[in-house]
Amino acid sequence: MTDNPDTYFVLLFVAGTAVMLLMAVAIVLFVIFHQKKMMKEEVKQQRMELDYQKKMLKAALESQESERKRVAKDLHDDVGMMLMTLRVNLNDQTNNGVLEELRQLVDETHESVRRISWDLMPTTIDNFGLFQSVQEMCDRLSRNGKVQVTYSETGQRQTLDKDQELLLYRIAQESVSNALKHAHALKIEVRFEWIDDSLKLSILDDGVGFDFPTPHAKIDGRHGLGLYNLENRVALLGASLAFEKNDPTGTIVSITTPLSTHEPH
Known about the structure:
CATH class of the largest domain: Alpha Beta
Strand content: 5-15%
Number of helices: 7
CATH superfamily of the largest domain: Histidine kinase-like ATPase, C-terminal domain
Number of domains: 2
Helix content: 55-70%
Radius of gyration: 31 Å
Distance between the termini: 74 Å
CATH topology of the largest domain: Heat Shock Protein 90
Oligomer: single chain
Order of helices and strands: HHHHEHEEHHEE
């Protein structure tokens, strides 16, 4: 050790300063590391909560679809068969005005049961897939001549899984129903566009339009059930949902599903 007191104190000061700096750096590194660890844990927790919510939502929608399928089958097989039997028995009776009215009523009721059954669960969705089912829906809605619902598809079609097809069908069905019931549209177009690795579904109408949803409206509960169901299905698809004003009147609802990053549920 040096005999010079000044040099000794200088070295002591430098050594103390170095130790303090090292301690400060260690504390800063510890805080940064701890914050990063906490952020990772928070992100992990958020992902777990989101996955849990998606699983619960998927289970609820699957239960809803199973119930739709059961009710549709009961309507078609049981009620439909009873109405057909009643119609055959009426045909065996002597013709008169009352019987003719009964036959007409039975025919109308049978047609209503078939329509309700098809709305609940179209048979084409399992047998022929999404696109033919949506096209058939458009044709059925246009059949009475009161509204015009058209269907179009552009681009190179890719393969979708059954969950995607059913979710997209329900989204199209809900959007068209909203346009008819709430926007009082007379012309609706359902458009599928294959764009690179995504599928864009657009529903365009000439209705009266509506106030687009905002986060504030959702928090306050001023959010229609139809729109709520729509957003839930879009979330399960991992898709994006957008609303635009149609020109000159009406609304465009667009759902874009990224196919390459979609994880089957």
